[in-house]
Write a structure and sequence with these properties.
This protein has 2 helices and 6 strands. The chain is an alpha+beta fold. It has one domain. The strands form 2 sheets. A 4-stranded mixed β-sheet has the order 2-3-5-6, with no helix packed on it. Strands 1-4 form a two-stranded antiparallel ribbon.
């Protein structure tokens, strides 16, 4: 089955969570560019945030995602204001036993 044949991901379970991002880590492709993820079947962009650098390294290695560095979010408000609405912030990324990716979407208030 190809990506084009897969249905797009849809929310299940809990609604987006109100999670503090200050102090969280994001993988960076270079000094100015965060790593963005795409899920099969959609063009939606996801910005992964991690509480722990080791957790981030393990997840990204298993997912086959390359990154050059790590950035820490110093100010949640400023960070979210700098993002476009096309980017969905996610945290608590993990693989299920079946190999599916699960995460919590971060609630962004306007």
């Amino acid at each position: 089955m190809t990506d084009e044949e897969l249905p797009p991901p849809h929310p299940t379970g809990k609604p987006p969570e109100d999670i503090s991002l200050t102090g969280r880590l994001i993988p960076a492709a270079d000094a100015h560019t965060p790593v963005l993820l795409r899920m099969p079947g959609t063009d939606k962009l996801y910005l992964p945030c991690f509480a722990d650098e080791n957790e981030m390294r393990i997840f990204l290695e298993r997912a086959g995602v390359a990154y050059e560095g790590v950035k820490q979010i110093d100010d949640e408000r400023a960070f979210l204001q700098d993002l476009t609405n096309e980017v969905t912030v996610i945290t608590n990324l993990r693989f299920t036993e079946e190999g599916k990716v699960r995460f919590h979407e971060v609630l962004r208030s306007n």
